[in-house]
Write a structure and sequence with these properties.
This protein has a single domain (33-150), classed as AhpD-like (Up-down Bundle), CATH 1.20.1290.10. The protein is built from 9 helices and no strands. It has helices at residues 11-28, 34-48, 51-63, 68-73, 85-98, 100-103, 109-118, 121-144, 155-160. It is globular. The model has no long low-confidence stretch (mean pLDDT 92).
């Protein structure tokens, strides 16, 4: 299965990609823990089946010091003991925010309350934005059949210059 189009080398695709990257920078500059951001992006990408994004966020998380055990258990976070209650709340939000069509009502009040218990308002805004942006990126990757395996940590920063 070959990629359908390389959005990074396409004029319009590159413009869109640069703007998505800039939104991502705003989220990265928030006080939401960087490791948590990668875990949330990884979980949404797993659900959406975006090989490129799974590659990116696994490698970025590892480069930032995330352990192999935690990375391997993200897909089964509910059945593991390696995530904090705050991380579990964020992962639940990522799942419910990603599976909107399946959830018949979106994010549950219970999950929202858990998130609000562990994060301040700015962090909640960053987390909601993060879930929305990774879902947009996943759709770009899946629609274009962008495959994982070739990403090098830090590559986006170099491309956006």
């Amino acid at each position: 299965m070959e990629p359908r189009i390389n959005l990074m080398t396409n004029k319009i695709g590159a413009k869109v990609g640069k703007r998505i990257y800039n939104v991502s920078l705003a989220i990265q500059e928030s006080s939401l823990p960087k490791a948590l951001q990668q875990l949330v992006e990884l979980r949404a990408s797993q659900i959406n089946g975006c090989g490129w994004c799974v590659d990116v966020h696994t490698k970025e998380a590892a480069a930032a010091g995330e352990t192999a055990v935690r990375l391997n258990l993200v897909a089964a976070w509910r059945e593991s003991t390696v995530f904090t209650e705050a991380e579990r709340a964020a992962l639940a939000l990522a799942e419910e925010g990603t599976r909107l069509a399946d959830a018949h009502g979106g994010v549950s009040d219970e999950t929202w309350a858990e998130v609000c218990e562990h994060y301040d308002e700015d962090q909640v805004a960053a987390l909601v934005s993060l879930v929305a942006m990774i879902n947009a990126a996943n759709r770009l990757g899946v629609i274009t059949r962008t495959r994982g395996g070739s990403y090098d940590p830090g590559m986006f920063a170099a491309l956006s210059s």
